[in-house]
Sequence to fold (467 residues):
Amino acid sequence: MNSNQIYHKFKNIIPLIKKKIRLISVISVSIIVVLVILVTFINSTKINHLKNVNVLNTDLIEKSLIIEQEALKDSIDTNNFEIITNSLEEKQHNTIIETKSIKIDSETYEEVTFKSGDNFIKVLKTLNIDVQTSIALSDALGEIIPPNLIRVGDRIKIFINENNNKIINKVIFITKNEEILIKKDLNDRYKVSIIPPILEKKYSLKTLVVDETVYKTAQESKIPLDIINKIIINHSQDINFNKDIKDGDTVIIFYGTSINSKNNKALEHQLLYSSIKYKNDKNSEYFRYKNISGNETFYNSDGVSINKIIFIKPIKNSKITSSYGMRMHPVLGYERMHNGDDYKATLNTPIVATADGTIDFIGEKGDYGNYIRINHKNDLQSAYAHLNKYNKNIKNGDLIKQGEIIGYVGSSGLSTGPHLHYEIIRNGEKINPSKFAKNTSNIYLEGDDLQGFKKEYNRIIQLMKDY
Ligand SMILES: [Zn+2]
Fold:
């Protein structure tokens, strides 16, 4: 074959080859396109698949968390109350604690309610309180409520200084039953105290008709036990409950009940008035009154107390060597009235006030030598003579308690040797101290106390009328 022949053969083949190349390129392009589509599709399904895995995983985490929470709740429920624990805290990074700022009486405070999973320090952290302050507050609160006994629903109010929001004025922690105050003292330390509950007063007026005994009748009428006991004690002054009371006698009881307005619990009962009609027309009645010294007791309508005035001996373990009455005076040598009792005792034996009172006289007084006189209730006075020295801490006008040392035995004034001359004076008249001590008298109110009693008497009567 010559070159021309070869040329002609190729000339025929070329279009064929061209045709094939085109076909190949079309096929390969379509293959690429298909491949690209396929790869994209595969990729997209891959992503979707991964996404599904992710969702599933978080689902699992949340579910396990819920299961744990539930298990925790169950274990708490079996204890009958819900204590916040910290075990969940680390897993729940995104707990949102709701706070609200409230302004009352120009005081701004933030209030937070404790939820499951909260703890004291964590809650304070959300309020931007620094750790040191949080720990100090937690320690202070811990004196009343340990941190592990903070319960779901407990609330905390943080009062912040308006001029400097880093200064905490006070913190009030509120539980179901009480409110606790945490406040800095003068030494800049947090001190904790329970805020006294707000009390509501409720009055009860009961009229009972005695069936068998006063005690049984009152009990059946649901009168509180402490009130019943008080009534029995008060009226025992006038009534022999075994002999004097019969069926059909009437008892009137008026008492107040202090109720904690926070939880409606009765905190205490206070008897204000009671009367018992007995032996046909006899009436025994007593009113409560708190005197100027702050002592609370019961008085009849004239202001005579159920309490009796009782004098003790001026010297412990000492005997009367010369008693009240006419006698031959050991120094003067003639018969004369002895206005008191003489107690023999060694020099400087302590002498005590025989009843509560006020110092009326302290100083030298003629034959009495060194002398002290005390004013008592019921227009009574006690006097102490021939003292060697006085208690240097007492002076005229001082209040003195029964049994308090007022001076020491001596032989000053007209005296033969160390002894105490002791007198009781009633309405200015020197009476027999030994006889008086045996016939104690009920204390009656005088002066401002009598005025105070009359006011209280009228108030109680009015309360009963308005009932
Ligand atoms: Zn005497």
